Structure formats: C-alpha cells, structure tokens
C-alpha cells in the first residue's frame, strides 16, 4: 500500500473520530469510513453495519457478512485491521 493511501485512510478515520456533529450523523459517517478503510486494506467485509468504540482511533467493526475487525492506528501511525 502506498504512502498516499495510508495517509488518506488515517485522515478519514481521524476526521470521523474527532468530528462532533449530531451523534446519529456521526455514527453513519463512522460506519461509512470504517467500510472504506476495510475495503482499502483488502479485508472481505462488504459493508460495516455496526461499530464499537474501544478507545480513541480504536474500533471493532461488525460487517454485514458477520465478520468482525478491530480497526486501529498502530505505534507507527498506520491504520491496521485485524480479524476478531
């Protein structure tokens, strides 16, 4: 994955996590952003239908196919997804 893509993923995830509009709108945006992040990372998901916040920039995403992924920013500043 090239540096530009990783930067875009980081910015998209960080923007979603830091925005403070209405909670319902924020939840929908978070699901869309997590869907995009998982697609860019090549994880089979389809669409994220639920997300649980574990910490800042750390979520567990539940996909429509039942897969669950932990999406977080590692110590190197990269967005990572691991299957749960």
Give the averaged pLDDT, no decimals. 82
Structure classification? alpha+beta
Question: How much is the radius of gyration in Å?
Answer: 12 Å
Q: Termini, distance in Å?
A: 22 Å
The order of strands across the largest sheet is 1-2-3-4
Low-confidence stretches: 20-25
Query: Proportion of β residues?
Result: 25-35%
Q: Helical region count?
A: 2
H/E element sequence: HHEEEE
Overall 3D form: globular
What's the number of structural domains? Answer: 1
What's the count of strands? Answer: 4
Sheet having the most strands: 4 strands, antiparallel
What is the percent of helical residues? 40-55%
Structure description:
This protein is α+β, with helices and mostly antiparallel strands and 84 residues long. The protein has one domain (3-83). It contains 2 helices and 4 strands. It has a 4-stranded antiparallel beta sheet with strand order 1-2-3-4. A hairpin with a 2-residue loop joins strand 1 and strand 2 (58-63). Helix 1 (3-18) runs antiparallel to helix 2 (23-40). The radius of gyration is 12 Å and the shape is globular. The protein starts with a helix and ends with a strand. Residues 20-25 have low confidence and may be disordered.
């Amino acid at each position: 994955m090239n540096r530009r893509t990783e930067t875009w993923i980081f910015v998209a995830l960080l923007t979603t996590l830091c925005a403070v509009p209405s909670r319902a709108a924020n939840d929908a945006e978070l699901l869309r952003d997590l869907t995009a992040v998982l697609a860019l990372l090549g994880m089979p998901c389809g669409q994220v239908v639920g997300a649980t916040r574990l910490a800042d920039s750390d979520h567990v995403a539940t996909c429509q196919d039942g897969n669950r992924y932990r999406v977080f920013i590692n110590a190197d500043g990269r967005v990572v997804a691991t299957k749960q």
